[in-house]
Specification:
Layout (H helix, E strand, L loop, with lengths): L6 E3 L4 H10 L4 E4 L5 H6 L7 E4 L9 E3 L5 E4 L4 H6 L1 H6 L1 H8 L4 H6 L2 H5 L12 H6 L28 H7 L3 E6 L2 E6 L19 E7 L7 E7 L10 E10 L2 E10 L6 E2 L1 H5 L8 H14 L10 H21 L1
Parallel strand pairs: 1-3, 2-3
Antiparallel strand pairs: 4-5, 5-8, 6-7, 6-8, 9-10, 10-11, 11-12
Bound molecules: flavin-adenine dinucleotide.
Flavin-adenine dinucleotide binds next to strand 2, helix 2, helix 6, helix 7 and strand 8.
Length: about 325
């Protein structure tokens, strides 16, 4: 599958990048590590006239601890840098653990946290070659108007399938977005729409530039568990992140989030809240797993059945809660 023709834009500064996005609005795609964009372009899911390569915008790279244990992470920071950061491992271990499960070492050397947050939603009927999609009559997400996953439906159910967002949601992360009208900072959970087609609230002229982890979320015990077909290199088909803080043997705070089973990564608020003030045991961890499984809405977007993926959300939530409690 050959790459479509495009013109490469290589800005050296953030304002130059934003200017380019505004100039070529609607006809340009952003490239960070390119580990998802390039395969998608080969499949002709995107055929932009321009590709905006952010590599030269060095101000968007790096992990910057703040004086109060909070941290700022540039959108171009690679997943390897996050995985290997001793600061993040010490204070925000759920993020380093989730980053370490993404794809393979080579892809983590290229792939960035910004690209992971912005990752396109995935579906068996979408992530295919042009010939394959044409043979099936296309779908709502690209070039068609029918959904093979929810026949008769008008909404796209492609699954959001990146590993770091559930960890970031558990840490109450915020993201910075920059566009021609200035800079805004929003909680990550407001970034996702829950619609597989228009899955994020980012304007075509905007970039995700930074991720902020607050001091209040530092030093929670964190665990990430993930289901995938090939253990050494694959997107999640179900993923659960859990963070927990203890005092006097009881849970002072707990948060649970999941990925790859809905069109957005989701905080399962009720499952986290039910643990607060309790001592974790098998039954409690199982009850949290039941709530998470009921919140998951996997459909036939992948090779594994929805029933199996939902069951694995239950199992992983239980295991992750028990593991976070014993950390
Ligand atoms: C074989 C294989 C296995 C994979 N396995 C996993 C996996 O296990 N888990 C997982 O999470 N991912 C996986 N991926 C996908 C990918 O490698 C990662 O999600 C990676 O983090 C994407 O980052 P990137 O910088 O390469 O993004 P890119 O490919 O550069 O971009 C991804 C998308 O985000 C947009 N984008 C990128 N940066 C920005 C920005 N700063 N602002 C606005 N939009 C932006 C791009 O336009 C594009 O739409 C896999 C990919 C492959 C090829």
């Amino acid at each position: 599958m050959s790459l479509p023709q495009f013109r490469l834009l290589r800005p050296r500064a953030l304002n130059e990048a934003i200017d380019s996005l505004a100039t070529h609005e609607g006809n340009v795609r952003v490239l960070s590590g390119g580990t998802d964009l390039i395969p998608s372009m080969r499949q002709k899911l995107f055929e932009p006239e321009y590709v905006l390569d952010l590599h030269g915008v060095t101000e968007l790279r790096g992990i910057r601890p703040q004086s109060d244990s909070a941290v700022e992470i540039g959108a171009l920071t690679t997943l390897s840098a996050i995985e290997k950061s001793s600061y993040l491992r010490r204070h925000f271990s759920v993020l380093t653990e989730a980053a370490a499960t993404v794809a393979s070492p080579v892809l983590r050397n290229m792939g960035t946290i910004g690209g992971n947050i912005c990752l396109d939603t995935r579906c068996l009927w979408y992530n295919q070659s042009l010939t394959w999609r044409k043979g099936c009559g296309y779908c709502i997400k690209k070039d068609g108007d029918l959904c093979h996953v929810a026949p008769g439906g008008t909404k796209c159910w492609a699954a959001f399938s990146a590993d770091t967002p559930p960890a970031l949601l558990c840490l109450n992360a915020q993201i910075e977005i920059v566009g021609p009208n200035g800079t805004r900072r929003i909680p990550l959970k407001e970034f996702y729409t829950g619609d597989g087609e228009k899955y994020r609230t980012l304007l075509p002229t905007e970039l995700v530039t930074r991720v902020f982890l607050p001091r209040e979320s530092a030093d929670y015990h964190g665990v990430y568990r993930k289901l995938r077909v090939r253990g050494s290199i694959d997107y999640p088909l179900a993923g659960v992140a859990v963070v927990m803080k203890h005092s006097n043997g009881q849970v002072e705070d707990a948060r649970i989030a999941m990925t790859a089973v809905n069109p957005a990564p989701i905080l399962v608020q009720r499952a986290g809240e039910m643990l607060i003030g309790k001592v974790i045991d098998d039954a409690l961890a199982e009850a949290a797993g039941d709530i998470a499984a009921r919140t998951a809405k996997p459909l036939t977007t992948s090779a594994l059945t929805p029933e199996y993926r939902r069951e694995m959300i239950r199992v992983f939530t239980k295991r992750a809660v028990l593991a976070a409690a014993s950390n």
